[in-house]
Design brief:
Elements (H helix, E strand, L loop, with lengths): L2 E3 L6 H6 L15 E3 L24 H32 L4 H77 L7 H10 L6 E3 L5 E3 L3
Antiparallel strand pairs: 1-2, 3-4
Length: about 210
């Protein structure tokens, strides 16, 4: 194996005219050692320009053996292709087995559709019963709410009527210009002494004055 540093480190004429010895290791400023190869852009060497390469002669026995091996290879490959073609025809969309599988899938699909239809009917009955029960519960709840609302309105009306009556009674006891003199005379005739005391039992002790 011939080794040399990268040609970029040397002049062009040096690369053309210099050939290192075999198995020579060079180190030039730490450059990487590579195998010597002729650049692509260089023409054929003058010593090899008109050289006719010698044709390789293959023995007859070897030719016969190569032909036999190639024939066996072609036969085996033809058998494999035929087998794969038959398998593909069996499993293809137009084969009898594929048609049978398609029919089985269609039958299974129809069975599943019937089962789905029956299940939908059953679920529909359950849903309708549940909705009817919920409707009845809602109606009962609304009826109870209406009864409570009526009772509340009745109670509010009674409370308002009582308040109005109390207010009217209070209005009658109020002083006006018409009964002012009468109230003054009644107060003078019936004096009230607010100077009294209460004992522990709640008895009133009026003042002697």
């Amino acid at each position: 194996m011939q080794s040399i540093v990268k040609p970029a480190l040397f002049p062009k004429s040096f690369c053309y005219n210099w050939h290192p010895p075999r198995d020579l290791k060079l180190e030039y400023f730490g450059a990487q050692i590579v195998r010597w190869r002729k650049p692509r852009w260089l023409p054929t060497a003058p010593s090899k320009m008109f050289r006719v390469p010698k044709r390789c002669v293959i023995p007859k026995e070897e030719v016969v053996e190569i032909q036999r091996i190639y024939n066996n290879y072609r036969t085996n490959m033809r058998s494999i292709r035929s087998y794969l073609k038959e398998q593909n025809m069996l499993t293809s969309a137009t084969s009898q087995l594929a048609a049978q599988h398609a029919q089985e899938e269609e039958d299974e699909h129809q069975c599943l559709m019937l089962f789905n239809l029956e299940e939908n009917k059953r679920v529909q009955k359950l849903r309708e019963a549940r909705q009817q029960k919920e409707l009845e519960e809602d109606l009962e709840r609304v009826a109870r709410s209406l009864v409570k609302l009526e009772l509340k309105e009745k109670h509010d009306i009674e409370a308002a009527q009582s308040h109005i009556e109390k207010t009217q009674e209070l209005v009658r006891s109020l002083l006006t210009h018409e009964n002012l003199e009468e109230a003054i005379e009644k107060a003078l005739e019936n004096p009230i002494n607010y100077n009294f005391a209460l004992d522990q039992d709640g008895n009133i002790h009026a003042s002697s004055n």
